[in-house]
Amino acid sequence: PGNVRELQNLVERGVIMAAPDEPIDVHHLFRGDDLHADRTLSLGEAGRLVQVSGPAPGHPHRAAVPEASEYRRALVAARYNVAEAARRLGLSRAQLAYRLKRHGID
Questions:
Q1: Calpha distance 55→45 (Å, rounded)
Q2: Is pLDDT of 48 > 70?
Q3: Quick check: 38 pLDDT over 60?
Q4: What is the mean pLDDT of residues 56-74?
Q5: Are 49 and 43 spatial neighbours (Cβ–Cβ below 8 Å)?
Q6: How far lies 72's CA from each of 61, 76, 103, in Å?
Q7: pLDDT tens readout for residues 87-101
Q8: 47 pairs with which residues across the strands?
Q9: Which run of H or of E encompasses 27?
Q10: Predicted confidence band of residue 79 (pLDDT cuts 50, 70, 90)
Q11: Is 98 exposed, middle or buried (0-12, 13-18, 19+ CB in 10 A)?
């Protein structure tokens, strides 16, 4: 049961972190400190981890990721309407809610 819950949480995180219509990749499943900075992994066509040369598309360490202050500004501009702030940031409501919780923004 514990392994099943862990797998469910991992898949849920991938769904939340991936953009709509974007395939779930390794960087969606694990936090940045869980990944080794000296190597970039991706999912190969057979569904196995493969080393890729250069940054993985959308990898959070290589792409611009909004800072906590940007989340706060979006919330203030949307008068603390999380759904509206998410739309302004180009995120789903679930993605923004997850990121706000991760940054300790209530």
A1: 17
A2: yes
A3: no
A4: 66
A5: yes
A6: 21, 6, 10
A7: 888 888 888 898 898
A8: none
A9: helix 26-29
A10: very high
A11: middle
